[in-house]
Amino acid sequence: MNAPLLSGARAGEPLLEVSGLCVDYGAGPGTVHAVLEADLVLHRGEVLGLAGESGSGKSTLAYAITRLLRAPGMITGGSVGYHQEPGRVVDLLAADEGVLRVLRWSQISVVLQSAMNALNPVFTIGSQLTDVLRAHRPGMGKAERRARAAELLAMVGITADRLDSHPHELSGGMRQRVMIAMALALEPQVVIMDEPTTALDVVTQREILEELMELRERLSFAVIFITHDLSLLIEIADSIAVMYAGRLVERAAATALFRAPRHPYTLGLLSSFPALHGPRKQLTGIPGSPPDLRQLPAGCVFHPRCPYVMDRCLTERPPLLQLGVNGEWSGPGRWVGAGADRAAACWLQDGSVAAPPELARPAPGVKQPAGLVTSAEPAEPVVPSAPATRSQP
Amino acid sequence: MTQLEVTAQPPGTGAPLLEARGLTKHFPVHGSVPRIGGGSGPGSRRALWGARRLARGGAAADGAAPKVVHAVEDVSLALAEARVTAVVGESGSGKSTLARLMARLLKPTSGTLLVDGHPVPPASRGGRAYARLVQLVLQDPFSSLNPVHDVRYHLARPLRVHGLLKPGADLDDTMTGLLERVSLTPADQFLAKYPHELSGGQRQRVAIARALAVQPRVLLADEPVSMLDVSIRLGLLNLLGDLRDRERLAILYITHDIASARYLADTIVVMYAGHVVESGPAEIVTDQPSHPYTQLLLSAAPDPDRATPPDLNGRGSPPSLVTPPPGCRFHPRCPHAMAICAERLPPAFEVADGHQSACWLHASDSGLARPGHADPARNGLVADHGQEGDALTDP
Lengths: 393, 395
Hints:
Number of domains of chain B: 2
Structural class of chain A: alpha/beta
Oligomer: heterodimer
CATH superfamily of the largest domain in chain A: P-loop containing nucleotide triphosphate hydrolases
Strand order of the largest sheet of chain B: 6-7-8-3-9-10-12-11
Order of helices and strands of chain A: EEEHEEHEHHHHEHEHEEHHHEE
Helix content of chain B: 25-40%
CATH class of the largest domain in chain A: Alpha Beta
Distance between the termini of chain A: 12 Å
Strand order of the largest sheet of chain A: 6-7-8-3-9-10-12-11
Radius of gyration of chain A: 21 Å
Largest interface: A-B, 49 and 45 residues
CATH superfamily of the largest domain in chain B: P-loop containing nucleotide triphosphate hydrolases
CATH architecture of the largest domain in chain B: 3-Layer(aba) Sandwich
Strand content of chain A: 15-25%
Number of strands of chain A: 12
Radius of gyration of chain B: 23 Å
Order of helices and strands of chain B: EHEEHEEHEHHHHEHEHEEHHEEH
Distance between the termini of chain B: 23 Å
Largest sheet of chain A: 8 strands, mixed
Shape of chain B: globular
């Protein structure tokens, strides 16, 4: 599922560029830095996974990008460049309400966490679907709007007779599908999904993800998929950014992140998911618990839980280091291009010390420019006992 | 009709400690209580009497049974000492109802519980003695602890209620001992803390310590890690594993996550719409699933190792439990459904030693081949496990 779907357009063309984004909750001495200096690029047609535990700032980051953050949340720095057309970049953080009003939903839409509460219980599905069309497509007639709403429902596998149903008459899975249909109503370029399938059973979750991937292929929108379930993300995302305590700690192509993680937290997360097959092995998870954002540890925020902690980690905060295509330290730099983007915020990866072997596995040869692949053989799987079933294209 | 006899017990262990035999729970449907001015049918006065009688365990007087939710239907399972039995199912499969029945928080519509082979008296009697033996840990540690009391209160309460404080023994020592057993150290600092000062994982550990206070022999854990952050789930699962190994507790682990059940449990019981559909040793059930529903569940579970998107066989959603389909409850979705599936409820067929599957495909006299798994990598495993080959002949 990780294969790039857009042949021409996906060739590294950025769609959304987040750089140095900071979000605080509150002000003064009790300020919580919910997101600190986040750098991200979403490419056209890409599924970018945002993984992290509760309180890691993943939802806050998404709401900041769309300027949906409510007080006491405050964006205190950075920029979010949206490439509306080639050569035309809008800074969403500087944009006024008028510009945002045009961009929201028609260019960037959001599927909110818990579809149960995101739909209005007193209106029918049809009226909620046509509402957005009425607001954004003033030229559309009533019958046209209803036809489009029926078409949208059909797109997610719901029959048109449900237009007159109220949300409580639908199952959880159907409500989530309605939310997705609604988000796609104006054919946006970017769809931000905040834990869209967390409350659903696995079979329903899988069905919805399948539909989503089909729709993406057809409509070629890009997705920012927020979840705590890294094992799911590895299956569906093209690239993944891992957040911990408000910081981006690692960013890589999904396969590379799975086969060759560079941050101890990612490694710990990966070994927190028991495997579905292979011999059973004792897993340790990550000792301790996520920090209180009001009393963050000095230095690297992960150091109290890190098995590889060094003296330096206690005092100096590691920046998000840009790594080479094979996940190695290549000196300071910026984006090399899609697929080659690899970064980790860990002092083990800056070349000053030799990283432990489990954090220095060779990256798999997928999704890298052909000439730059240094290791031909597939890397050892990170999650214990995983048989090498993944085909290497 | 053949009884569904599932004795989910790993071979080679002693007698079951806590056993459920034929547990059934029907909940009355509120909609079947009359509306004012109703004539006949479910809205009538008769239906009200019927529903009341049902609540007392009687039958409806007017032939047409009042509407009930068939939450748990004829489930038998045995929890053995020093074993973890996982019950896996989706929401609505009846797994939590089963835990509550086994904790005697709910009165079963029919069926019995046996402790060491002796039937447990009706729910009205012996509640405290039973609670000393069987303790329940709930899903949400944010609501299962009282926010106005500290940890000390939560742990002292069961000790006092059950009269477990030996004269001369120091209460604090007992409680710090409990906290150390769930790896909350330094224990004396945790005693004075309130739930809001603890993280989710720590709260769940307090809830487990509270359950351990009465020195139970059986621990029922209803989705104990699903509310917790991913990075701390493993710690809790390992704790349950330790309690099994060190203290020989019989543990029932209820979960929707089949991967965690495979990790922790010795035995897996898969439930669908109130029925047990498959049971057996954990690795066998997950590596060689023999029921189409278990196969569906496994193919839908997230798996980073998967090379291609999985094939889902049996799309759709669970049936209404008020009017469940006749025969096998999975048959409307089942890719292998046959005529018999809609008519008769399949009993549990023994597909291998200790591995049972309630599916007509496994009826030895049916002459039908076993279903192959959707994942080709696992087909080989299925084939050498069954004798009849893995190619399915559609009826």
